[in-house]
């Protein structure tokens, strides 16, 4: 969807805060009827602007209180290795995000684990699946801001 109008932006703002809003409530918030609101939401989904709806879970509540950023360097830069890396990181449940980077760092991985022993299990799973030349990790001491809502 190339152009988002003011109502589309309001819908996105509200749904990013609470995707469980009923169509009635959402419509009231943005000034539309239930049906008109449903059509707008459906159009945002169909066009790929809304890619999904999720429930956010408190990491401590499920014993995943330690966030780790893994910095990965590799001397393999061929397409086959990249596909294998993508498949390996997608298959490990504790890995939340993977980014291919510019500069000295090849990849940055964000993961959630219970503790250091759990991190080591995740690390061992990763290195068993494919060769990496260097992996270092930084552990989050304090989460100052960790949001999901994009400014619309």
UniProtKB/TrEMBL annotation:
One of its GO terms (biological process) is response to amino acid. GO terms for cellular component: cytosol. It comes from the Bacteria. SUPFAM superfamilies: Dimeric alpha+beta barrel, Winged helix' DNA-binding domain. Residues 4-67 form the HTH asnC-type domain. GO terms for molecular function: sequence-specific DNA binding. The keyword Transmembrane does not apply. Keywords: DNA-binding, Transcription, Transcription regulation. CDD domains: HTH_ARSR (cd00090). The keyword Transcription applies. It holds the Pfam family AsnC_trans_reg. This is DNA-binding transcriptional activator DecR.
């Amino acid at each position: 969807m190339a152009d988002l109008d003011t109502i589309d932006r309001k819908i996105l703002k509200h749904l990013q805060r609470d995707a469980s809003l009923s169509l009635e409530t959402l419509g009231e918030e943005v000034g539309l009827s239930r049906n008109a609101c449903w059509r707008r939401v459906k159009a945002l989904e169909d066009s790929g602007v809304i890619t999904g709806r999720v429930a956010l879970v408190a990491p401590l509540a499920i014993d995943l209180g330690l966030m780790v950023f893994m910095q990965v360097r590799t001397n393999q830069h061929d397409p086959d290795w990249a596909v294998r890396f993508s498949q390996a990181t997608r298959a490990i449940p504790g890995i939340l995000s993977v980014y291919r980077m510019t500069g000295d760092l090849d990849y940055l991985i964000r993961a959630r684990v219970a503790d250091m022993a759990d991190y080591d299990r995740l690390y061992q799973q990763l290195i068993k699946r494919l060769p990496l030349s260097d992996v270092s990790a930084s552990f989050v001491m304090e989460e100052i801001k960790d949001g999901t809502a994009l400014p619309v």
